[in-house]
Amino acid sequence: MTDLKQQALDYHALPNPGKISIALTTPAETSKDLALAYSPGVAEPVRAIAEDPNNVYKYTAKGNTVAVISNGTAILGLGDLGPMASKPVMEGKALLFKRFADIDSFDIEVKHHTVEEFVNTVANIADSFGGINLEDIKAPECFEIERTLVERCRIPVFHDDQHGTAIVTAAGMLNALDIQGKEIQAANIVCMGAGAAAIACMELLIKCGAQREKIYMLDRKGVIHTRRDDLNEYKKLFANNTDKRTLEDAIKGADVFVGVSGPDLLSADHLALMAPNPVVFACSNPDPEIKPELAKTTRDDVIIATGRSDYPNQVNNVLCFPFIFRGALDVRAKAINDEMKVAAVHAIRQLAKEEVPAEVLKASGDKSLTFGRDYIIPKPMDSRLKARVAKAVAEAAVESGVAALPLPENYMES
Ligand SMILES: NC(=O)C1=CN([C@@H]2O[C@H](COP(=O)(O)OP(=O)(O)OC[C@H]3O[C@@H](n4cnc5c(N)ncnc54)[C@H](OP(=O)(O)O)[C@@H]3O)[C@@H](O)[C@H]2O)C=CC1
Ligand SMILES: CC(=O)C(=O)O
Ligand SMILES: [Mg+2]
Question: What are the domain boundaries of the chain?
Answer without folding.
Answer: 17-161, 162-414
